[in-house]
Amino acid sequence: ADPVPVAGRNHELAALHPTVTELVHPSAGHGLPLTHPGWCRDLVATLR
Question: Do 1 and 25 contact (CB within 8 A), yes or no?
Answer without folding.
Answer: no
